Amino acid sequence: MENVNQQTGSAQDDEQAASEFLTFTLGDEEYAIDILKVQEIRGYEPPTMIANAPPFIKGVINLRGIIVPIVDMRIKFKLGAAEYTPFTVVIILNVAKRVIGMVVDSVSDVLSLAQQQIRPAPDFSASFDTKYILGLATIDKRMLIVTDIAQLMTSRDMELIDHAATH
Amino acid sequence: MTTIDMSQFYQVFFEESEEHLAAMEALLLELDIDNPEPEQLNAIFRAAHSIKGSSGTFGFTDLTDVTHILETLLDRLRKNEIKLRSDMVDAFLEAGDVLKTMLAGHRGDGGADPQAMEAVCARLKQLAGNPQPAPVATPAAASAATPPAPAAPAAVADSGGHRSYDIEFVPTAHAAADAAIISGLLDELRGYGELQIIVRPDPAGDGAGFWHLRLKTDQAAERFGDSIDFIAEQDAWRISETVSAALEDAGGAFGFFPSAAGSPVVDDRFGLFEDMPPPVATESASPAEAEAYGFFEPLPETPGAAASPAPEPGDGCGYGFFVPLDATPSPAPAAAPVPEDGDGFGFFAPLPAPPVVPERAAAPQRADTAPQLVAAGPAKPARAEAGAVPVPAAKAVKAAPAATAAETSSIRVGVEKVDQLINLVGELVITQAMLLQCAEQMHGSVPERLAQGLAQLERNTRDLQESVMSIRMLPISFVFSRFPRVVRDLSSKLGKLVELKMSGETTELDKGLIEKIADPLTHLIRNSLDHGIEMPDRRAAAGKNPTGTITLRAAHQGGNIVIEVGDDGGGLSRPKILSKARERGFQVSDQMSDAEVWMLIFEAGFSTADVVTDVSGRGVGMDVVRRNIQAMGGRVEIESMTGIGTRMTVRLPLTLAILDGMSVAVGDQIYILPLSYVIESVQPDLRDVKTLSNQARVIRVRGEYLPVIVLHEIFGIKPAAANLTQGIMVILDADGTRAALFVDALVGQHQVVIKSLENNFRRVAGISGATIMGDGHVALILDISALAAMAKSAQMAAA
Q1: How confident is the model at residue A70 (pLDDT cuts 50, 70, 90)?
Q2: B542 vs B359, B538, B568, B641, CA distance in Å?
Q3: Residue A130: which domain range?
Q4: Nearest to B572 by CA among B548, B536, B611, B601
Q5: Domains in chain A, number
Q6: Radius of gyration for the alpha carbons in chain B, expressed in angstroms and rounded
Q7: Whether B336 contacts B374, CB under 8 Å
């Protein structure tokens, strides 16, 4: 089943040549996510804290009348120092009909990646941050970690969504 | 001609029919069986009749069949031919239920059980005694029952005599000038039978103008035709015989005549015309509901010829606007452009060319009949709505059924539109708060005019918000109206005598809450009936009135609506609840206060009923009730006294969208407390704060020890007030138990717009929602009940 999916997926990608990705940095690592999942990019403002939430959930902000949760990926992935400077950026994502803000160190690029440029990542088995990695791509000797952001944000690990089984 | 897609009106039909059914049920339940008010019977009849009319129009013949039988019985009742009995009311209610399921079936959810339908029909027929009431031709029995109702223009085909004539004429200038001549004619006609003046000319017009009379007599038209001929303008009169049962209310249908050229009085030429043959030609006992009447132009015809054209029986209910035709010598039916099974009407433009001869239109044509005559104007498919044509509106209101009249002053709007409006107003409230806060930060340096403008804005915003919210407000009678039926059915099933007293039905509540409160309230009432009210013999033995009373009361209290369900039954039994709770393994102690004990009945799986009935006793109801009410931001309390009764009080916020909140500071965070929970706040004195087992803290307030909820401990925030004496205690009333919430400081009081936290995030324990403050920051709204529970479990864990 999975094979079939991959085949159809790659056939589609060949036709469409490439899709666009937004790249951002977390510490020393550079990530790429599907740009169609990005609603907007804005500066960091201190959110309203939520009691008893895990440390990487910084709280909620008011985004033009909508309450949006903010997660700090640096804390979640233990990458770099979670410092908030005037240059700290929040990527507002629109995934699974939800609006979620994601704090990153900086946004670097928008670039096209063809399917063949994305190589499968070596299997680190169950460690959670590799579960959501679609592959690795190399652009100008930079290694980009291509991430399935929708799946990551809706995963149980992020604690952003009520899961029936969680308590 | 245009065919109209009737399906676009189905929704309106369904809604209207449901309203009629609800009205009918309410009226039935109010009926005093021994001494029914004629007006109530009439109203019930009208409701049934309207359903019949419109279902016929829309081709739902099964509905028509049932309502027809229902109507036959009702008609005999209202004419005092048979006496109302309680089994009839039962049968009517049952029929109403069947109609509801049939309606639902047509809507596409479920369907009617044909057997139930037949059973009801058979029962109604049997109650009516005579399934096919005597045709009109037998006047003997009927004449006794003539409703003396000139005011309620009744039943053309009614039993006042053999025949009913429509007399229309325009008096000569001479006759018109002398009032005595006209009144002499009227007196003469009264001598023949029952006379009803349907249209009289405007008195200001010197008596000249168009008269329309209706005479019920057993005389032939020739007997009085001459008298009219004498008074009327040359050829400007007509007598037409109305065939029995021909006139029938078409469920609020009517048409207007535009003015015709060459007629003396313009205003009176507008008229309502409603004429419809019943689906079954033999049906006689359905005297047209009063709304039917029409204006007709004088006819230059001989009485003999004029008397004959009677509406042709057809099975649509068509109606139309008729206009004088130009000189048509013989009775030519001006066919209304009747659409498919036609509910519609058309405008016929006036034609010039006098002499004007509008023929008594055989309005009810077969549905497929194309308009045979003048259709100069566009046939407008539209719901009959009073006021659609400005000039005759006043008459329309008079003639049309009340329901139609009401439409003139209200519009149906989708709820989503209203919700969008409410959202926008919510944004406006936030923006206004933001401006106000900006101005406050400028302290004294705000220009006076700006300050005034802001104050004005604040007032206007609040007014706007209130009026927008009021759009969503519905009287709670929408919910209450179902309970008489519930109580009636259930009490007879349980063999109890119960009277339901309701008050405050006009109290208004948000539509969303109305929909959600219905189930919990039904549960509470069923519970009171089943567990509260005792059997009649036990009540008598206890020296009470054998008839128990359930009171249902709604009222506004501050920003809340309070709904009480009370009964004068046996009350809750404390030992029984406690023993049952122990049996179920709940943590209970004999020291628990009554209020706490009573709250146990809301626990899942708790039932003290000895016998599980199909009414209650499975212990699933009450916990659902509490959960539903809490989900609405409300709470429920119980008061009970053994032998005296039980009262359950449901408190709900007025609306789901905006609440009055008190903002409190804890550390660097601001939280909102729903104001309705706040009783008072006190500066704690260290001597009043005690610990239990060195863990749980209590505070003594007015001689009462209250548990202390320390917010910064529960939420893990670093507080500004580390010491209990530095902060402030807010005394809260959470679900009947009081507690003191310790916070750093009180900040202010605002109206806050509730925003969902769960749209983009998940539920957070202790938080019921979020709001946006004036400075654009998010503040979280505290869930008091959950906090109290959290504090309790935290203390238990600590102990």
Answers
A1: very high
A2: 74, 6, 12, 14
A3: 19-166
A4: B601
A5: 1
A6: 34
A7: no
Are the Cβ atoms of A69 and B778 closer than 8 angstroms? no
Q: Is residue A13 part of a domain?
A: no
Cα-based torsion angle of the residue sequence B619, B621, B622, B628 in order, rounded to the nearest 10 degrees: 150
In a domain, A98, yes or no: yes
Mutate to test the interface with A, among B762, B764, B782, B790 (most CBs of A within 10 A): B762
Taking contacts as CB-CB distances below 8 angstroms, the residues of chain A near B671 are none
Burial category of B723 from C-beta neighbours within 10 Å (exposed 0-12, middle 13-18, buried 19 and up): exposed
Q: What would the two tokens of residue B163 be?
A: 């025949």
Least Cα distance to B509 among B657, B646, B684, B407 occurs for B657
Extract the residue ranges of chain B whose pLDDT is less than 50.
1-2, 131-161, 207, 244-407, 612, 617-619
Question: In chain A, how many H helices and how many E strands?
Answer: 4, 11
**Hey, are the CB atoms on A53 and B764 less than 8 Å from each other?**
yes
Q: Which two tokens stand for residue A65?
A: 């009348």
- Let me know: does A125 contact A32? Beta carbons within 8 Å: no
A4 lies in a domain? no
Strand partners, B163: B217
ipTM of the complex: 0.79
A69, B761: Cβ pair inside 8 Å? Answer: yes
Chain B residues contacting A via beta carbons under 8 Å: 426-427, 430, 669, 714-717, 755-767, 770, 772, 776-780
Cα-Cα-Cα-Cα torsion B683, B687, B693, B695, nearest 10 degrees, comes to: 30
Q: Test B778 with A65 for CB contact under 8 angstroms.
A: no
Q: Which residue has the tokens 């009737």?
A: B6
Mean predicted confidence (pLDDT) in A139-161:
82
Which single residue is written with the structure tokens 């019977």? Answer: B41
Q: Cβ B760–A53 below 8 Å, yes or no?
A: no
Q: Which tokens hold the place of B274? A: 């409603």
What are B216-249's pLDDT values in tens digits? 766 666 666 666 666 666 666 677 766 544 344 4
Q: pLDDT-derived band of residue A55, with 50, 70 and 90 as boundaries? A: confident
Q: Which residue of A has its CA nearest to B769?
A: A67
Instruction: Locate B485 and state its tokens.
Output: 């039926």
- Please check whether residue B599 is in contact with residue B735, taking contact to mean a CB–CB distance below 8 angstroms: yes
Cis, peptide link before residue B355, omega less than 30° from 0: yes
The Cα–Cα gap between B403 and B46 comes to 10
Backbone angles phi, psi at B181, to 5 degrees: -65, -45
Looking at CA atoms only, how far is residue A134 from chain B in angstroms?
25
pLDDT given at position B399: 39
Backbone angles phi, psi at B700, to 5 degrees: -95, 115
- Paired tokens of A110: 């928008």
Q: What tokens does B224 get? A: 């009085």
pTM comes to 0.47
Residue A10 within any structural domain of the chain: no
In chain B, which residues have their Cβ closer than 8 Å to the Cβ of A53? 764
Q: What is the per-residue DSSP string for B350-386?
A: ----SSB----------TTPPP-S---SPP------T
For the beta carbon of residue B318, count every other beta carbon within 10 angstroms. Answer: 32
Minimal Cβ distance to B776: which of A62, A67, A98: A62
Alpha carbon of B713: minimum distance to chain A alpha carbons (Å): 10
Q: DSSP string spanning B185-242?
A: HHHHHHHHEEEEEEE---GGGTT-S-EEEEEEESS-HHHHHHHHHHHEEEEEEEEEEE
What CATH number does the domain containing A136 carry? Answer: 2.40.50.180
d(CA B717, CA B798): 19
Q: In terms of Cα–Cα distance, which of B362, B366, B370 is closest to B3?
A: B370
